[in-house]
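Bench notes, afternoon.
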Amino acid sequence: MRDNTIMNGKKRTRWQRRPGTTGGKLPWNDWRNASSWRRATQFLLLVINIYIGVTFYYWVRYFETGGTSVFIPRPGGIEGWLPIAGLMNIRYTLETGYLPPIHAASMLLLVAFILISLLLKKSFCSWLCPVGTLSELIGNLGKKLFGRHFTLPRWLDLPLLSLKYLLLSFFLYIALSMPAQGIQYFLMSAYGMIIDVKMLDFFRHIGTATVVFVAVISVMSLFIRNAWCRYLCPYGALLGLFSLLSPFKIRRNADSCIDCGKCAKNCPSNIPVDRLIQVRTVECTGCMTCVESCPVASTLTFSLQAPTGNAAPKPWWQRVALPGWGMTLVLLGILFAVIGYAMYANVWQTPVPEHMYFQLIPKARMIGH
């Protein structure tokens, strides 16, 4: 809504502030607050991933100890931490038309995240990814300690942004250059069957160089928001490319915008939202921070079409704007629908017999490619 008044012979437009806001912001416990829905979704996925990590550790220990320790079933969700296997299996399925014989769930989870990016920008990174959540928490701690975040100059920021695409190119070459038969041989090898255990060992027996690297990234994240996600994450780079096709985007009504700049100031990806009609960039994660920062009603939305204010209404399918709760439902709906399909197709668990695990897992550190 707007209120047109005449002052000194000139028409002045007063746009309606978002209902229920104080200083342009909704309280954290308001059901309409998209940021609160995002934090709740992040927390849920972080807890799920911690549970997966702990149960997977105890599952591995059962086979390492020859069956003398407590047995906990292998959590199928561990496949989500095998993106390279997922890429290889996508290649296998596209070439053969069949689901892969091993680690199929890694492919299906990757497909779920790609579907999310095709529909809802790179929202996996800001709503579901546990690494992104931890990076954000470190950034929030840095802001409390130092009072602000820092932005690198453009001449340094742009070259650093290219690093994640170089890493992505490297992993794509590894995963997609191999023919389907070679992929099957690799994943059915001793190394391929326990690739998830090898991944766990990487963290359990972490080297000095890796510790230094993680420490440097963590310190960087105190000063630069989402340093890992912005500059180095090849997973985010891949999803960002798919997100270019997303019909849902952050869209701005230039007529009702009061040019306060709060959206751009609060954007974790340093996107100049206040100067754009729609945000197309691969750096947008659909986090809706800009939407929650906007003090004017119906000016910024995550939608199919730009908000129209008092203009003639468009068909409902063009006016659809996702609220925070809607985003949570769609994201979790896609994720759990794919998990449900994996269970229905009997590929949620990798079909490696227990006797093979008893042979391979105790020797995992000695098994190479």
